[in-house]
């Protein structure tokens, strides 16, 4: 998955009110396809800046926590 595909997939999922589980699946797919942690976080940050104040911002922040490793050890992606 390219960076652009990751960004598009995350944004589309957020627009359709996807669960945290679905969003994390997209994040894991990005990693499995060779995506880097810092790239994922930067892309998520970009999505947040472009959509500040939208109803899905809290879920996006949760995904950003997982991307940064700020989550339980057993649930870390990187």
Alpha-carbon Rg, integer: 11 Å
Task: Decide which structural class fits the backbone.
Answer: mainly alpha
Overall pLDDT, averaged?
97
User: Which overall shape is indicated by the principal axes computed on the Cα atoms?
Assistant: globular
State the helix count: 4
Uncertain residue segments: none
Number of strands: 0
Strand proportion, as a percent range, falls in under 5%
Query: What string gives the helices and strands in order?
Result: HHHH
Helix content: 55-70%
Largest sheet: none
Kindly report how far apart the N and C termini lie. Answer: 16 Å
Structural description of this entry:
It contains four helices and no strands. With 78 residues, the chain is mainly alpha-helical. Helix 1 runs antiparallel to helix 2, helix 2 runs parallel beside helix 4 and helix 3 runs antiparallel to helix 4. It starts with a helix and ends in a 10-residue tail after the last helix. The model has no long low-confidence stretch (mean pLDDT 97).
How would you describe this structure in keywords?
78 residues, globular
């Amino acid at each position: 998955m390219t960076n652009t595909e990751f960004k598009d997939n995350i944004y589309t999922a957020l627009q359709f009110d996807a669960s945290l589980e679905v969003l994390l699946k997209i994040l894991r797919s990005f990693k499995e396809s060779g995506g880097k942690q810092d790239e994922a976080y930067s892309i998520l940050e970009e999505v947040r800046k472009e959509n500040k104040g939208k109803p899905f911002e809290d879920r996006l922040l949760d995904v950003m926590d997982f991307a940064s490793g700020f989550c339980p050890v057993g649930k870390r992606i990187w």
